[in-house]
């Protein structure tokens, strides 16, 4: 996969993308990540990339010309003839559609992704309409630039590329695992096949040594070696955490009859706890 990032701060990416699995994926050629300096595509002494908005208002906008010139220099296929199964151009914007694990799974199958990072008050809208296939937002808040958003998207997508994580199952059975995949629907004694988080739920809490730390012990079931009980405990913990922190995910999660029964129990435990207060 090739990823080009159009930005006025190309040095920003030297840090975030140069660690751990991302670094390894770049080093072994699984992905090529290329920050492109938009100022290279300016033609004036001050290397101007911004201008005032028509109609007045706060701040400045990134001008269209350097962005169009950069895209053309990269030989990106024009929007009308672009094969969206292979190549995409994305504008990072708080006005975009939410980026999530489902979108990451869509992007991972592409050969080429171009990310355009806005700055100031944003980007001339013709960049969006004439060059981009989609606008993506990484959350309901406003960053000062698209670079952090680009880094978030790159990290999320690259770790899904085949061979990037040591264990290929790691990204199938984790928080936000696709709810409808056949693998997630496989069950063992009425429990999901994996002991890991999947099926659209949040992952379960995990512990490592020491078993006792500052008076807090690891749940006993995890140290007893009974794998059926461990699976049951983990499933319940996933449901509990999702119910507590992200109840919205339960609407689309892959839930068995047993899961629904556990959720009922958890809800009535929760009600009982609150009525004790
Ligand atoms: N005036 C814009 C608005 O209110 O929608 C905000 C512009 S923001 C200060 C500057 C740039 O940061 C945007 O053009 C975009 O590239 C990036 N950005 C800010 N928040 C973002 C988010 N939540 N997701 C993705 N990109 C974001």
TrEMBL record:
Compartments, as annotated in UniProt: Cytoplasm
E.C. number: 2.1.1.228
GO biological process, one term: tRNA N1-guanine methylation
Catalytic activity annotation: guanosine(37) in tRNA + S-adenosyl-L-methionine = N(1)-methylguanosine(37) in tRNA + S-adenosyl-L-homocysteine + H(+)
Pfam families: tRNA_m1G_MT
GO molecular function, one term: tRNA (guanine(37)-N1)-methyltransferase activity
Residues that, per the record, bind S-adenosyl-L-methionine: 118, 138-143
Keywords noted in UniProt: Cytoplasm, Methyltransferase, S-adenosyl-L-methionine, Transferase, tRNA processing
UniProt-listed InterPro entries: Alpha/beta_knot_MTases, tRNA_m1G_MeTrfase_C_sf, tRNA_m1G_MeTrfase_TrmD, tRNA_m1G_MTases_N, tRNA_MeTrfase_TRMD/TRM10
Top-level lineage group: Bacteria
Cellular compartments per GO CC: cytosol
Domain tRNA methyltransferase TRMD/TRM10-type: 1-250
Top enzyme class: transferase
Task performed by this protein: Specifically methylates guanosine-37 in various tRNAs.
Quaternary structure note: Homodimer.
Protein's UniProt name: tRNA (guanine-N(1)-)-methyltransferase
Natural source organism: Granulicella sibirica
């Amino acid at each position: 996969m090739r990823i080009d990032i159009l930005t006025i701060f190309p040095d920003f990416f030297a840090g975030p993308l140069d660690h751990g699995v991302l670094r390894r994926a770049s080093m072994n050629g699984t992905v090529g990540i290329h920050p492109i300096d938009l100022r290279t595509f300016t033609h004036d002494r001050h290397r101007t990339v911004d201008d005032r908005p028509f109609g007045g208002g706060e701040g400045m906008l990134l001008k269209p010309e350097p962005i169009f010139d950069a895209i053309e220099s990269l030989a990106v296929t024009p929007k009308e003839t672009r094969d969206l199964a292979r190549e995409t151009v994305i504008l990072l914007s708080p006005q975009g559609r939410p980026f999530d694990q489902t979108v990451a799974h869509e992007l991972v199958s592409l050969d080429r992704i171009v990310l355009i990072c806005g700055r100031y008050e944003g980007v001339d809208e013709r960049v969006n309409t004439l060059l981009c296939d989609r606008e993506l937002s990484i959350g309901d808040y406003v960053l000062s630039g698209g670079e952090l958003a680009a880094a978030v998207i790159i990290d999320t997508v690259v770790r899904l590329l085949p061979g990037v994580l040591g264990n290929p199952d790691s990204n199938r059975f984790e928080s936000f695992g696709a709810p409808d995949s056949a693998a997630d629907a496989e069950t063992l004694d009425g429990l999901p096949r994996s002991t890991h988080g999947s099926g659209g739920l949040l992952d379960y809490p995990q512990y490592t040594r020491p078993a006792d730390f500052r008076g807090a012990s690891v749940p006993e079931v995890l140290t007893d070696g009974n794998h059926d009980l461990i699976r049951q405990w983990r499933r319940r913990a996933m449901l509990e955490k999702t119910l507590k922190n992200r109840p919205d995910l339960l609407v689309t999660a892959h839930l068995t009859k047993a899961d629904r029964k556990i959720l009922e129990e958890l809800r009535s435990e929760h009600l009982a706890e609150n009525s004790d207060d």
